[in-house]
From TrEMBL:
<protein>
    <submittedName>
        <fullName>Single-strand DNA-binding protein</fullName>
    </submittedName>
</protein>
<keyword id="KW-0238">DNA-binding</keyword>
<dbReference type="Pfam" id="PF00436">
    <property type="entry name" value="SSB"/>
</dbReference>
<feature type="region of interest" description="Disordered">
    <location>
        <begin position="130"/>
        <end position="149"/>
    </location>
</feature>
<dbReference type="GO" id="GO:0003697">
    <property type="term" value="F:single-stranded DNA binding"/>
</dbReference>
<keyword id="KW-0614">Plasmid</keyword>
<dbReference type="InterPro" id="IPR012340">
    <property type="entry name" value="NA-bd_OB-fold"/>
</dbReference>
<dbReference type="InterPro" id="IPR000424">
    <property type="entry name" value="Primosome_PriB/ssb"/>
</dbReference>
Length: 149
Protein backbone atom coordinates (compact mmCIF):
# COMPACT_ATOMS: atom_id res chain seq x y z
CA UNK A 1 0.00 0.00 0.00
CA UNK A 2 1.29 3.46 -0.89
CA UNK A 3 0.87 6.57 1.21
CA UNK A 4 0.46 9.96 -0.33
CA UNK A 5 2.51 12.82 1.04
CA UNK A 6 1.74 16.51 0.82
CA UNK A 7 3.97 19.50 1.55
CA UNK A 8 2.26 22.69 2.68
CA UNK A 9 3.71 26.12 3.43
CA UNK A 10 1.42 28.56 5.17
CA UNK A 11 0.62 30.72 8.19
CA UNK A 12 -0.82 29.49 11.48
CA UNK A 13 -4.33 30.94 11.89
CA UNK A 14 -4.79 30.65 15.66
CA UNK A 15 -2.85 29.54 18.71
CA UNK A 16 -2.13 25.80 18.44
CA UNK A 17 -4.02 23.52 20.84
CA UNK A 18 -2.58 20.46 22.55
CA UNK A 19 -4.82 17.67 23.86
CA UNK A 20 -4.04 14.22 25.23
CA UNK A 21 -5.71 10.93 24.39
CA UNK A 22 -5.82 8.16 26.96
CA UNK A 23 -3.11 5.56 26.59
CA UNK A 24 -3.73 2.27 24.85
CA UNK A 25 -1.84 -0.93 24.07
CA UNK A 26 0.03 0.67 21.18
CA UNK A 27 1.25 3.57 23.37
CA UNK A 28 2.03 1.18 26.25
CA UNK A 29 -0.48 2.96 28.44
CA UNK A 30 1.07 6.42 27.99
CA UNK A 31 -1.19 9.35 27.17
CA UNK A 32 -0.71 10.47 23.57
CA UNK A 33 -0.39 14.18 22.73
CA UNK A 34 -2.17 15.63 19.71
CA UNK A 35 -1.19 19.08 18.48
CA UNK A 36 -3.95 20.69 16.42
CA UNK A 37 -3.62 23.82 14.33
CA UNK A 38 -5.09 25.50 11.26
CA UNK A 39 -2.81 26.64 8.47
CA UNK A 40 -3.71 29.09 5.69
CA UNK A 41 -2.23 28.04 2.39
CA UNK A 42 -2.12 31.23 0.30
CA UNK A 43 -2.47 31.22 -3.42
CA UNK A 44 -0.39 34.29 -4.23
CA UNK A 45 -0.07 35.43 -7.84
CA UNK A 46 1.49 38.47 -9.47
CA UNK A 47 -1.00 41.31 -9.73
CA UNK A 48 -1.66 43.16 -12.98
CA UNK A 49 0.85 45.83 -14.01
CA UNK A 50 3.44 44.61 -11.46
CA UNK A 51 1.28 45.70 -8.51
CA UNK A 52 2.78 43.00 -6.30
CA UNK A 53 1.34 39.74 -5.07
CA UNK A 54 -2.38 39.29 -4.53
CA UNK A 55 -4.18 36.41 -2.79
CA UNK A 56 -6.32 34.50 -5.28
CA UNK A 57 -8.23 32.40 -2.75
CA UNK A 58 -6.04 30.22 -0.59
CA UNK A 59 -7.51 27.56 1.65
CA UNK A 60 -7.51 26.78 5.38
CA UNK A 61 -6.26 23.30 6.25
CA UNK A 62 -6.53 21.55 9.62
CA UNK A 63 -3.28 19.90 10.75
CA UNK A 64 -2.91 17.17 13.41
CA UNK A 65 0.52 16.22 14.80
CA UNK A 66 0.70 13.04 16.91
CA UNK A 67 4.38 12.85 17.92
CA UNK A 68 5.75 12.99 21.48
CA UNK A 69 7.36 16.40 20.95
CA UNK A 70 3.94 17.95 20.25
CA UNK A 71 3.70 19.72 23.64
CA UNK A 72 7.15 21.31 23.19
CA UNK A 73 6.27 22.33 19.63
CA UNK A 74 2.98 23.84 20.84
CA UNK A 75 4.97 26.19 23.11
CA UNK A 76 7.03 27.43 20.15
CA UNK A 77 4.32 27.87 17.52
CA UNK A 78 2.32 31.11 17.43
CA UNK A 79 -0.52 32.60 15.43
CA UNK A 80 0.79 34.19 12.22
CA UNK A 81 4.00 32.14 12.16
CA UNK A 82 5.04 30.75 8.78
CA UNK A 83 5.54 26.96 8.85
CA UNK A 84 6.23 24.07 6.50
CA UNK A 85 4.15 20.93 7.05
CA UNK A 86 4.89 17.53 5.53
CA UNK A 87 2.31 14.82 6.07
CA UNK A 88 -0.43 12.57 4.83
CA UNK A 89 -3.69 14.09 3.57
CA UNK A 90 -6.97 12.51 4.61
CA UNK A 91 -10.62 13.25 3.89
CA UNK A 92 -12.42 15.11 6.67
CA UNK A 93 -15.86 16.57 5.93
CA UNK A 94 -16.93 19.62 7.94
CA UNK A 95 -20.26 21.27 8.76
CA UNK A 96 -20.89 24.76 7.35
CA UNK A 97 -22.97 27.54 8.98
CA UNK A 98 -26.19 26.16 7.46
CA UNK A 99 -25.57 22.69 8.96
CA UNK A 100 -24.65 21.15 5.60
CA UNK A 101 -21.69 18.79 5.43
CA UNK A 102 -19.00 20.01 3.03
CA UNK A 103 -16.13 17.97 1.60
CA UNK A 104 -12.75 18.79 3.06
CA UNK A 105 -9.42 17.35 4.02
CA UNK A 106 -6.81 17.70 6.71
CA UNK A 107 -3.19 16.65 7.12
CA UNK A 108 -1.70 14.24 9.63
CA UNK A 109 1.72 15.86 9.93
CA UNK A 110 4.92 13.84 9.90
CA UNK A 111 6.99 16.98 10.46
CA UNK A 112 6.44 20.68 11.13
CA UNK A 113 9.22 23.19 10.48
CA UNK A 114 9.29 26.84 11.50
CA UNK A 115 10.23 29.15 8.63
CA UNK A 116 12.31 32.23 9.49
CA UNK A 117 9.91 34.91 8.23
CA UNK A 118 9.10 37.48 10.94
CA UNK A 119 11.30 35.67 13.51
CA UNK A 120 13.03 38.27 15.70
CA UNK A 121 15.39 35.98 17.63
CA UNK A 122 16.16 32.38 18.47
CA UNK A 123 17.61 31.11 21.74
CA UNK A 124 18.91 27.56 22.15
CA UNK A 125 19.24 25.71 25.43
CA UNK A 126 22.66 24.50 26.56
CA UNK A 127 23.45 21.09 25.16
CA UNK A 128 23.42 18.40 27.85
CA UNK A 129 26.83 16.82 28.49
CA UNK A 130 27.39 13.45 26.85
CA UNK A 131 26.89 10.51 29.18
CA UNK A 132 27.86 7.11 27.77
CA UNK A 133 25.58 4.16 28.27
CA UNK A 134 26.67 2.07 31.27
CA UNK A 135 27.22 -1.08 29.20
CA UNK A 136 29.08 0.73 26.43
CA UNK A 137 32.61 -0.54 25.79
CA UNK A 138 35.32 1.93 24.73
CA UNK A 139 36.52 1.67 21.14
CA UNK A 140 39.52 -0.61 20.64
CA UNK A 141 41.57 -0.43 17.47
CA UNK A 142 42.00 -3.90 16.04
CA UNK A 143 44.18 -3.23 13.01
CA UNK A 144 45.16 -6.90 12.89
CA UNK A 145 41.66 -7.87 11.74
CA UNK A 146 41.61 -9.85 8.50
CA UNK A 147 38.26 -10.62 6.88
CA UNK A 148 37.51 -14.22 5.86
CA UNK A 149 36.25 -14.82 2.34
Amino acid sequence: MYRGTITLEGNIGQAPAITFLEGNERSRGEKRPILKLNVKYDRLVNGPNNEGLIDKGGVWIAVDYWKKDGPALAQLLQKGMRILVIGEPRAEPWENDQGVMEPGFCITAESISILPRRIASITLEEKAPYQPHAAQVPYQDDSSYEPRY
